[in-house]
């Protein structure tokens, strides 16, 4: 019992640490993709942090199997170097007793990955895509730089002299050529940006508006105290967007008629099984060789290569099942076959160990 608690504690703590490290690396890489979106739209630091954290549950679900694999490799590499593995064998610990705490960690990680997969990912990723859509379509291109000609869209250029606050401006010039038959230039002393359901709107105060034909003749000219102009991009339906597969629950994906949806559902159902597959492959590698010190490099390399191959097969199964929907069960075979082989190995190794023990006692 003490041995099992010792292994369980080491594997669990290392798994958490590796998950945090991998998550930090993925977050750093993925968050760089959001910088352009944030800068272009003048969003705040809070928006950047918020939008970069929202996809984290999806990354955690993908990372957990690999982090458990790495933790098993790291801990048993340490055990081997410190001669602790030899002490396990001398103490009479069976293979099952060594694997049991690792299997408990696998169960815990499987439950966490399943909860994240079923409930957390659809909500967090849906919020992420909604926030992304909001930045691109609702307040996109309205945070203008001072003293620079800002092309908001084709045929609409705005120059501002000074920004007094986030939405209040001074010294505004607008050049509008969206109408092919005429050009419009507008000057205003003050103005502010208003956010409406149809998009951003400029409210201009104390200025003049002039319409000019393409040949240069002035059609009309007027002064105004209050004038509004819509600066949002034209969209067929600004409130509509296609849902990403990660925004939908597994039940929604299974109930849809599209093959892509069903394939995605089976992939998301099968992926948490890797929390058992990958760590068991690693520990079986350590238990398969008697002279661990000489074969340590081969064990670690082979475990990583097999784990990588299984993940490639699972991802590749998507394209196979889209063309052949009847073989959807391949998603579950890829992670479960190594698990069954691992248990068969443990069973036969236990029988061999028991036979040797009995034979030794009979001889004595």
Structure description:
The protein contains ten helices and six strands, in the order H-H-H-H-H-E-E-E-E-E-E-H-H-H-H-H. It has 364 residues and is an alpha+beta fold. It folds into two domains: 2-137 and 241-363, no CATH class; 150-230, no CATH class. The two termini are 29 Å apart. Mean pLDDT is 80; it is low at 234-240 and 360-364.
Topology:
Layout: H1 2-41, H2 45-53, H3 56-81, H4 84-90, H5 95-137, E1 150-153, E2 156-163, E3 168-176, E4 182-196, E5 199-213, E6 218-230, H6 250-255, H7 259-270, H8 274-288, H9 292-323, H10 330-363
Antiparallel strand pairs: 1-2, 2-3, 3-4, 4-5, 5-6
Helix pairs in contact: 1-2, 1-3, 1-5, 3-5, 3-8, 3-9, 5-8, 7-9, 8-9, 8-10, 9-10
């Amino acid at each position: 019992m003490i041995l099992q608690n010792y292994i369980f504690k080491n594997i669990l703590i290392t798994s958490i640490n590796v998950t945090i490290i991998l998550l930090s690396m993925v977050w750093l890489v993925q968050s760089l993709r959001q910088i352009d979106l944030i800068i272009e739209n003048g969003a705040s630091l809070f928006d950047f942090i918020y939008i970069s954290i929202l996809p984290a549950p999806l990354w955690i679900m993908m990372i957990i199997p690999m982090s458990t694999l790495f933790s098993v490799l790291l801990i048993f590499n340490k055990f081997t170097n410190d001669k602790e593995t030899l002490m396990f064998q001398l103490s009479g610990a069976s293979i099952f007793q060594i694997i049991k705490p690792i299997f408990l960690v696998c169960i815990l990680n499987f439950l966490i990955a399943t909860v994240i997969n079923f409930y957390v990912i659809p909500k967090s990723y849906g919020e992420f895509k909604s926030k992304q859509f909001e930045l691109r379509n609702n307040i996109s291109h309205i945070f203008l730089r001072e003293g620079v000609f800002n092309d908001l869209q084709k045929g609409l250029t705005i120059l501002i002299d000074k920004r007094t606050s986030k939405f209040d401006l001074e010294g505004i010039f607008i050049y509008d050529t969206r109408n092919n038959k005429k050009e419009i230039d507008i000057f205003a002393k003050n103005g502010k940006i208003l956010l409406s359901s149809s998009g951003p709107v400029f409210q201009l105060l104390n200025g003049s508006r002039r319409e000019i034909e393409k040949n240069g003749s002035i059609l009309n000219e007027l002064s105004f105290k209050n004038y509004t102009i819509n600066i949002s991009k034209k969209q067929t339906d600004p409130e509509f967007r296609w849902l990403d597969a990660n925004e939908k629950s597994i039940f929604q994906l299974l109930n849809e008629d599209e093959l892509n949806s069903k394939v995605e559902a089976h992939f998301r159902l099968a992926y948490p099984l890797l929390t058992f597959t990958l760590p068991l492959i690693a520990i079986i590698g350590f238990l398969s060789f008697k002279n661990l010190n000489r074969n340590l490099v081969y064990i670690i390399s082979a475990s990583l290569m097999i784990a990588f191959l299984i993940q490639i097969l699972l991802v590749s199964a998507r394209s196979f099942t889209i063309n052949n929907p009847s073989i959807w069960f391949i998603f579950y075979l890829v992670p479960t076959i190594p698990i069954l082989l691992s248990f068969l190995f443990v069973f036969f190794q236990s029988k061999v160990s028991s036979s040797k023990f009995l034979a030794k006692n009979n001889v004595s």
